Description:
Blueprint (H helix, E strand, L loop, with lengths): L6 E4 L5 H12 L3 E6 L2 H9 L3 E4 L5 H10 L7 E4 L17 H27 L4 E6 L12 H20 L5 E7 L3 E2 L11 E2 H13 L4 E3 L2 H11 L1 H8 L3
Parallel strand pairs: 1-2, 1-4, 2-3, 4-5, 5-6, 6-9, 7-8
Helix pairs in contact: 1-6, 4-5, 7-8
Amino acid sequence: MQLSGKTALVTGGTDGIGAQLIRQLRDKGVTVITSGRNPERCAATRADGFEVIEADLGTPQGVAALIAAVAGRTIDILVNNAGTSADHDFRNQDLPDLPTADAGIFLNLNAPIHLITALMPTLRSRPEAMIVNVTSGLAIAPRAGGPVYCATKAALRSYTQALRRQLRGSNIHVLEALPPVVETKMTAGRDNRKMPAAECARQFVAAMERNADEANVGLVKLLQVVHSISPKLARSVLIRF
C-alpha cells in the first residue's frame, strides 16, 4: 500500500507499540486519528500534534463513542492495536477478577469486530484500504500464565484469517500483525528478552507497505517455523510459561 496521503484510525496509540506506530505512520505521510483511555497520555499525545479520541474500548460504551466520533470521516486504514493482558492464573491462591477479565475479552476481541463492522462501508468506498489486526505470537501457541489473553488473540487470529478470505479480491487488504514480547508497560516485570516498541512498529509499517498477509515480528518468525513443522512442539515450548 502507498501510505502517503492515507488517513488511519489506530486504536491504543497513546502508549506502547501504538505510540511508536502512529509516529512512524505520520512520518510516512499518513493522517492519523488515534484513541486512548488514559487522560494524561491522551493529553500528551495531543500535545505532540495528534488527533486523539478518549475512549475505553474495554466497554461497549467506549467503542460506541469512538465509532460516533469518526462517523462520516474518510478512513483508509483501520489498525486494531489496543489490547490488554488482564488475565488470571489458578496456580495462585487468589480467585481472578472476572469483571477485569471480561473487559479484557471485550477490548481484545469484541472491539475490533465492532470497529471493522462499523467502518466497513467507508473502507469499501476507498480506492485502496486496509485492516490491520494486531494479535500476538501467543495466538499461535498459548502460555499457561495467560489463558484469557491467549484465547482472545487466537480468536482474533481466526477471525482475521476468515475476514481476509471474505475480502479476497476486494479493495480492502487484511493484515495480521503478530508481535513478540515487546518492551511496554504491559510487559513490565517480565524477564523475557523484549523487542523495542519502535522496531516492532517499524516492521508493522513495512508489512503494510508491501501488502503482506502477516507480519511475523522477531521471535514469532521462529515460532511460525517450529509450528509449521510440529504444532505439538510449539505448544509444548510455550505452555510452560
